C-alpha cells in the first residue's frame, strides 16, 4: 500500500516537472514564433491591437522586398565565412592552449592563465577606437579579415578546454604516449583531440552563434555593401522616417535559419558533452 502511495506521489511530482518544462519551452520558443508571424504579415500588424498571433501570407513578398534593398545572399555568405573561419581558429587555439595549461608545467603558468581570464571582464567597447585605428592603418577596412581576427583569441574557450581536458584526459594516457615517442603536438592531435570532440561541439556552437550575432565591430570596420555581414546589412534597412517591420523581420527570420541548422547538426555532441560533465 505504501509503495503504491509512493509511486502515485512520484508520478504527480514528475507530471508537474514535465508541465513546468513544457511551459518554459513554450516561453522560449514564443519569440521565434512571433518573429515568423511578423515575417509573414504586413508592417501594420506590428502595432495592431490585439496583437496578431496567426501567420499571414506575405512571407515571400516581404522577402522579395529584402532582396530588393540589400545583397542578402552575399551578406549571408560573408557571415558564414566569418563565423566558420573564426570558429575553426578558436577551436584550434583554445584546445591547444587548454591542453598546455591542463597538462604541462612551466614558469608563470597560473599567472598567464589568470591574465587570460582577466580579459573577460574588460568591456570590448574600451578597445574599439585603438583597434579601429590599427585596422585602418593596416588597410584592412572593408575586408572580412578585419571582422574576424579580433575574435580569434577566446578566453572563455581556453577556460572551457582547459577544464574539460583536465578532467577527460588522464595523465597516464599522456605519459604512455610520451613513452611511445610521440611529440607534444602529436599527442594533442592523435590522443587529446578525439577525446574532446564533445567539448568541440559545445564551444563551436557558442562561438558560431556569438560571432553570428556580433554587430558593433562589424558595423565599425565594414562600410562597403559588398563586404556587409548579415547583421550590418539588416541594420542598413532601417530608414530615418519609416521602418517596414514585416520586411525587416522577414530578413531576420531567414538569417536565423543557419543558426538552427548548426545547432541541430551538433546537438547530439552538445548533449553528450553536458551528460559527461554531469557524470564527472
Automatic annotation (TrEMBL):
Organism of origin: Caldalkalibacillus horti
Topological relation to the membrane, as annotated: Multi-pass membrane protein
Subcellular localization, as worded in the UniProt entry: Cell membrane
Pfam families on file: BPD_transp_1
Family that this chain belongs to: Belongs to the binding-protein-dependent transport system permease family.
Every ABC transmembrane type-1 domain range: 76-266
SUPFAM superfamilies (UniProt xref): MetI-like (SSF161098)
Upper classification of the organism: Bacteria, Bacillati, Bacillota, Bacilli, Bacillales
Transmembrane segments: 16-36, 76-99, 111-134, 140-160, 187-212, 245-266
InterPro entries: MetI-like, MetI-like_sf
Main localisation: membrane
Name of the protein: Cellobiose transport system permease protein
The entry's keywords: Cell membrane, Membrane, Transmembrane, Transmembrane helix, Transport
Amino acid at each position: 500500500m505504501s509503495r503504491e502511495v509512493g509511486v502515485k506521489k512520484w508520478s504527480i511530482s514528475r507530471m508537474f516537472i514535465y508541465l513546468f518544462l513544457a511551459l518554459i519551452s513554450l516561453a522560449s520558443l514564443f519569440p521565434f514564433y512571433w518573429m515568423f508571424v511578423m515575417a509573414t504579415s504586413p508592417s501594420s500588424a506590428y502595432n495592431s491591437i490585439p496583437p496578431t498571433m496567426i501567420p499571414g501570407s506575405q512571407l515571400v513578398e516581404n522577402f522579395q522586398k529584402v532582396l530588393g534593398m540589400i545583397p542578402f545572399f552575399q551578406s549571408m555568405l560573408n557571415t558564414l565565412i566569418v563565423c566558420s573561419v573564426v570558429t575553426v581558429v578558436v577551436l584550434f587555439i583554445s584546445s591547444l592552449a587548454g591542453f598546455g595549461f591542463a597538462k604541462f608545467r612551466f614558469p608563470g603558468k597560473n599567472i598567464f592563465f589568470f591574465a587570460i581570464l582577466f580579459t573577460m571582464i574588460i568591456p570590448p567597447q574600451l578597445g574599439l577606437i585603438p583597434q579601429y585605428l590599427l585596422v585602418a592603418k593596416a588597410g584592412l577596412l572593408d575586408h572580412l579579415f578585419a571582422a574576424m581576427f579580433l575574435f580569434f583569441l577566446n578566453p572563455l574557450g581556453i577556460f572551457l578546454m582547459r577544464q574539460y581536458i583536465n578532467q577527460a584526459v588522464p595523465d597516464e594516457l599522456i605519459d604512455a604516449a610520451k613513452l611511445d615517442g610521440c611529440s607534444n603536438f602529436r599527442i594533442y592531435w592523435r590522443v587529446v583531440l578525439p577525446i574532446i570532440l564533445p567539448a568541440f561541439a559545445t564551444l563551436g556552437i557558442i562561438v558560431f552563434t556569438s560571432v553570428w550575432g556580433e554587430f558593433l565591430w562589424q558595423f565599425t570596420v565594414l562600410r562597403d555593401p559588398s563586404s556587409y555581414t548579415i547583421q550590418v546589412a539588416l541594420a542598413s534597412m532601417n530608414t530615418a522616417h519609416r521602418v517596414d517591420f514585416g520586411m525587416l523581420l522577414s530578413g531576420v527570420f531567414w538569417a536565423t535559419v543557419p543558426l538552427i541548422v548548426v545547432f541541430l547538426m551538433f546537438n547530439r555532441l552538445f548533449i553528450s558533452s553536458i551528460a559527461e560533465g554531469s557524470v564527472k
